[in-house]
Amino acid sequence: MERSAQRLGRALIVIVDDRVAHGEHEDSVGPLVTELLEENGFIVDGIVAVAGEIVDIRNALNTAVIGGADLVITVGGTGVSPRDMTPDATQGVLDRPIPGIAEAIRSSGLAAGAVDGGISRGLVGISGSTLVVNLAGSRAAVRDGMATLSALVPHVIDELSGLDAN
Q1: What are phi and psi of 16, to 5 degrees?
Q2: 49-81 pLDDT, tens per residue?
Q3: What is the pTM of this model?
Q4: What is the C-alpha to C-alpha distance for residues 70 and 64, in angstroms, rounded to an integer?
């Protein structure tokens, strides 16, 4: 990355998982996302676990945006089951979608064999000056999605912060 000597900004991770939110299961994906974000120059403010309810997801996203996060990564709830509501909640928070990034994540997920990444309904877009990204919940989808994002996010963050003069 071009700005490796600098910090890209602040990030928050939202884990959408009923069992994790209710303390019935330990979060194994949040630490992975944290590690990958820190490797890419982000300061991770924390990991928030919420149940797969539209109101809970939307509240977590709005809190992150109001709190000034530069990037919010949601993990989970992007599939086709009745409980997968992350894209539905995210849609109500976004000011401007960035469908090209969402499609790139799906395409690379399919190519890498991360089926849930390939069939994800996940969205990517801007809320205020925050980039919001929905990733599927498997470790494979997270690794692949984060690899795809690492090339794209610095440009978006620069543009949102007004640092990109081009």
Answers
A1: -105, 100
A2: 999 999 999 999 999 999 999 999 999 999 999
A3: 0.93
A4: 9
